[in-house]
Design brief:
This is Tripartite tricarboxylate transporter permease TctA. Keywords: Membrane, Transmembrane, Transmembrane helix. InterPro entries: DUF112_TM. With about 500 residues, this protein is mainly α. The protein has one domain (about 1-500). The protein has 19 helices and two strands.
């Protein structure tokens, strides 16, 4: 009951006309960017990060939440209409969604995606309201050793579980950790890896790195490798833009199962919503094989409904894990964690005590964002597809200018612009050689936490490193990590064996 009363207070803060404007703007921007090929919610948040420093924290994070959820739907719109998902989390939705579109059911496919996103996100937001305070209370039991184990869990899981090559994932993580240690050591006051340059004494800005890697690097890639060519043909939507009662009954169980599959992955640092969307799709496909007339491969509505609900329920729960534990499960969540720190806020139990107005207004905005997205996406899905008519050279040159303006506005330093270009080239090289970017961002964001926790734990134990593997929470985290790695190894060995046979 206390959570409900706090949520009502959050709605009072979120339903001001200013905050409603930021929710609406975030949903619009997230969907618009998600529709664009090669872009996504990560890039949208990275580009907006410098701009939002002019806003007060509540407004900024309310807009970020709209961008986060809106980007997911934009990604799916591209996958359905052009068979070109904006991000990996939308790949599973393209399998049956694009077939529905090719069969003349594009409008019904987009409606299925919109309703699935609404159901998954809304249920996840409701779970977060009741679960986040308990997670925050539970995290008060975390000491330095527990936080180090949590950071290590995030490092290993995101760098090895969701990547085709664990080596590339770990190298990307190492690069992020390397960036994180540049600057003056907070304990000893000794400059580290600064090359005696005063510009690096304060470290390398997270904002600069995220904009460079996620936005500028992507622009360079499309300019030099992809050459702005779009794959696939845009399918025009015809007929009714709503579901018949028969279609709704067909999709409803899949929405429910997809939501249930996605919820647990919101608190597991396994790379975001890619894994649960594929699991939801696979579950529906296995169920479909038992039917007298299997529909998969012909545009099965359940094959689209389940991944959409799973992806958004994972995203909703991920926001709860971010607020209560300070644990990012994806690159976008890591950027938002960095944004909290830029405002001098640390997600976790103290956030619920020190900034309750912000926390509960943000949680309330999740529900508002779900409703706004349903309103703007059900009738206007094809309008978003018209954004594809923008010439790519105009689009990407505009993004480049926006990158430079955003970084210069936050620092006023020419050195940061040169750093933006340098890291952008590195991001391009990583993109060209299929190095994952999420481990880099998570390594940079959680690196300082891991370093500080490691030092504090060992110092408090008078140099006894065994403290790092003592305690029920620590052992549980390492046990879960071992299980995740074993399951991942088994899955990769099985898939490789199937390819060889």
């Amino acid at each position: 009951m206390e959570s409900l009363s706090l949520l009502m207070e959050g709605f009072a803060g979120a339903l001001t006309w200013q905050n409603l404007f930021w929710v609406f703007l975030g949903c619009l921007l997230g969907t618009a960017v998600g529709v664009m090929p090669g872009l996504g919610s990560s890039m949208a948040v990275a580009l907006l990060l410098p701009v939002t420093f002019a806003l007060e924290p509540t407004a900024a994070f309310i807009m970020f939440s709209g961008v986060y959820f809106g980007g997911l739907f934009g990604d799916s719109t591209m996958g359905i209409l052009m068979n070109t998902p904006g991000q990996a989390s939308a790949i599973a939705s393209t399998f049956e969604g694009h077939k529905m579109a090719k069969a003349g059911r594009a409008s019904q496919a987009l409606a299925t995606a919109a309703i699935g996103a609404f159901i998954g996100g809304f249920i996840a937001s409701a779970v977060v309201v009741f679960l986040a305070p308990f997670l925050a209370e539970f995290s008060t039991q975390f000491g330095p050793a527990e936080f180090f184990a949590l950071a290590l869990f995030a490092f290993v899981a995101t760098s090895s579980v969701v990547t085709d090559s664990a080596v590339k994932g770990l190298l990307s993580l190492a690069f992020g950790l390397g960036i994180a240690v540049v600057g003056i050591d907070s304990v000893t006051g000794v400059p580290r890896f600064t090359l005696d340059s005063p510009y690096l004494f304060d470290g390398i800005s997270l904002v600069t790195v995220t904009v460079a890697v996620l936005a500028l690097g992507e622009v360079i890639y499309f300019a030099t490798i992809a050459r702005f060519h779009r794959k696939g043909e845009l399918i025009q939507s015809k007929g009714r833009s709503w579901l018949s009662w028969k279609e709704f009954k067909e999709a409803a169980p899949a929405w429910g199962r997809g939501t249930a599959i996605g919820l647990p992955f919101g608190v597991v640092p396994a790379g975001g919503s890619e894994i649960p969307t594929f699991l939801a799709y696979g579950a529906e496909r296995r169920l479909d094989r038992r039917r007298r007339e299997p529909q998969f491969g012909k545009g099965a509505i359940r094959g689209l409904a389940a991944p959409e609900a799973a992806g958004n329920s994972t995203t909703g729960m991920a926001m709860g894990a971010l607020l209560a534990l300070g644990l990012p499960i994806s690159a976008t969540a890591a950027i938002m964690l960095g944004a909290f720190r830029q405002y001098g806020l640390q997600p976790g139990p103290l956030l619920f005590e020190r900034a309750p107005d912000l926390v509960w207004a943000l949680l309330a905005s999740f529900f508002i964002a779900m409703i706004v997205l349903l309103i703007i996406n059900l009738p206007f899905s094809m309008v978003w597809a018209k954004l594809l008519l923008i010439p790519n050279h105009y689009l990407y040159s505009g993004i480049t200018v926006f990158c430079g303006l955003g970084i210069y506005a936050t620092s006023g330093s020419t050195f940061d612009l040169l750093m933006l270009l340098g890291v952008g080239v590195v991001g391009f090289l990583m993109r060209m050689h299929d190095y994952p970017l999420a481990p880099l961002i998570i390594g940079m964001v959680l690196g300082p936490l891991a370093e500080t926790s490691l030092r504090d734990a060992v110092i408090s134990a008078n140099g006894d490193a065994s403290v790092l593997v003592q305690g029920p929470i620590v052992l549980t985290l390492y046990g879960l990590l071992a299980i995740v790695l074993l399951l991942t190894l088994r899955s990769k060995v099985t898939s490789r064996t199937r390819r060889d046979t």
